[in-house]
Amino acid sequence: MERVRIARRIMIFWTLFIGIGALVGSMAMLIKPDGSIMQMQGMLPYFQVLPFADVLFQNYIFSGIALLIVNGITNLTAAVLIIRKKTVGAYLGCLFGITLMLWIMIQFVIFPANFMSTIYFIFGLLQFACGIAYIIFLKQSEFVFDEKAYKNIGRKPDVLVTYFSRMGYGRKIAYEKANELGADIYEITTPERTKGFLGFAWLGRFGMHGWAMPVNAVGKNIGKYKKVIFVYPIHVFAVASPVKGFCKACKGKVKKAEYIAVHFRKDSDFSKSFAQMDEALGIRADKKESVVCKFGNVVKRKQIQ
Ligand SMILES: Cc1cc2nc3c(=O)[nH]c(=O)nc-3n(C[C@H](O)[C@H](O)[C@H](O)COP(=O)(O)O)c2cc1C
Fold this sequence. Notes:
By secondary structure, the protein is an alpha/beta fold. Helix content is 50%, strand content 14%. α1 (2-31) crosses α4. The site of flavin mononucleotide (FMN) has 20 residues, from α6, α7, β3 and β5.
């Protein structure tokens, strides 16, 4: 996956950049504890507001050791783990972004406003945000779907399973259902952008406005099926806009329906989406199911009355 590779490289950059910077800074402090290498002699008085300052902050030895441990060894360890493609490295890299922000917050309290503290706080925030993205991309990349594994599809084609799926999670659930029933399968597609970050934002825009997204010409005779099972993701607390567009395009043709709503919230069934579907199709569904799905893994299924 391309974005895992990019996120991994960015995290290698952040952990090495912060780790090497901290290592160099701490060495300078330990070699010359008066702070003269970094011209920090004049800053020692600011440290005197800290607890145990009379013991710890009369020179830069304690600060140097703390910097080496808190931002140096930690980030360099994370860098090695990320380079070696260990998942724990992603979590540590992300965590050390928070550590850096906390470190800088102490500086905000003791030093007057200054450029270096501000920029390093922003670096910590970026490291944390990139770490979150890296963890998410890694989780997404673990999801596998093999269409060829579903050999029973289309054996008893009086039922149709139709789905819209951006990440492929709903597609897997739809294929499993169609395979179980021997049903036909149909993917709802749209000429609008739905992939990548822009696709996410575009679907979000349609979702926020409650709009139906235009869909490509429906390549199935919907009217010939005894039942249509809709597998749809929840977008912005409601039925995803391409599914709304599909319902519009085949209103009056669906004889019987069943709904499977896919989302990631354990605390909600999104029952309102079933009423939305009934209204859009002009019928009442026989069966409704709410499926909680995290990175493609089904964690909860609930039949709704
Ligand atoms: C634009 C957008 C908005 C979303 N809004 C919600 C939401 O409000 N609640 C929720 O639980 N999931 C929401 N999701 C997440 C999807 O419902 C969830 O990841 C689903 O499993 C995706 O299935 P898919 O891979 O089949 O598209 C949203 C996803 C997108 C793209």
